[in-house]
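Checklist before submission:
- one chain only
- standard amino acids only
- sequence pasted in full

Submission:
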Amino acid sequence: MQEESLFPDLTNDEKKLIEDFLSEDVNELSDFGAKRREFLKQVSTVAGAMFAYQLMGGQEVFAHSFNQTTGDEINHANIENGITVAFKVNGLQKTLEVDPRMTLLDALREKLLLTGSKKGCDHGQCGACTVIADGRRILSCLTLTATCEGKSIVTIEGISKNGQLHPVQAAFIKHDGFQCGYCTPGQICSAIALMNEAKNGEVSFVTADVRVKARPLQLSDEEIRERMSGNICRCGAYPNIIAAIREVHSGKNVAELWKFAGENNQTQFKSSV
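Returned file contents:
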């Protein structure tokens, strides 16, 4: 079988590509028969090469290798109508070139490699992406990086100081306020901002008297539940989270709600095998 019958209507350039890419002569494939898998692999390679050749008008497919391009060059090359945003992150001044549509969450994770803030729902419904901006908690998945010009952002990576855990972090560990841990960065940032709101006398939906003058509020468990309702824990560690926040907010020791099996002479689980 001749080349023209296998690949009809080929241009001279396309025939040349076949000669360059096929490891066996087309006549040999027909006369002696190649394995079907090998033949399909070779034809796919040729088809892809011809498509790229036609698409690029016969010019070199890749102007320069990705491996020879620095990260900054790639970022600038792929940004259309990019803008420059300067703000502080965990006390350090940062200046980023970003797409105007880029969210703060994506900028933190992809540009600054601060991956503690999690992308849970990406719709502002789960709270896993919560960070603190100028002392107030925000959902970074719904916040455009462009709106953060001049602001001070604190993420979970900036909560501890000088190697010492923040009291909320320590309380979460003590009270087992996390299980899988995915929501924990957002929970902790939200809890810290929540206590600042209470110090400022900011009321919530369940505050008994919203007409009182601003003053430090003592938060009940009901208040804590209401104010943390935007942070979802799919593992269901809510009682432990509330206990951790209550301990830090009140400054009083709160007994753990959990114990290991067998602790304090409790009955231990035994295998039935």
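Reviewer check: Residues 104 and 145 are 4 Å apart (CA to CA).
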